[in-house]
Specification:
- The chain has a 3-stranded mixed beta sheet with strand order 1-2-3, with helices on one face.
- About 0% of the residues are buried.
- It is of the alpha+beta class.
- It has helices at about 15-30, 50-65, and strands at about 10-15, 35-40, 40-45.
- The chain is built from 2 helices and 3 strands; from the N terminus they run βαββα.
- The mean pLDDT is about 85.
């Protein structure tokens, strides 16, 4: 079972992410860091550990099954 991560989500620009991608992926993988990717100051994507992404997917799927 996934334990919810309450750490803050850091905003990063696409340009900064492009130049620091390896570092960011290591922080996400090993430290559970979370990032909101901004393009022109607006959020376009999020980077979260795979366990969190899978838990969100499963919760969404279960919610849909419950509503149907």
């Amino acid at each position: 079972m996934y334990r919810y991560n309450l750490s803050p989500i850091e905003d990063v620009s696409t340009d900064w992410l492009r130049s620091h991608l390896r570092q960011v992926l290591e922080e996400v993988r090993y430290h559970g860091a979370r990032y909101a990717v901004l393009r022109r100051g607006k959020p376009v994507a999020g980077l979260v550990p795979i366990t969190e992404a899978r838990a969100l997917f499963e919760a969404t799927r279960a919610d849909r099954a419950y509503r149907d």
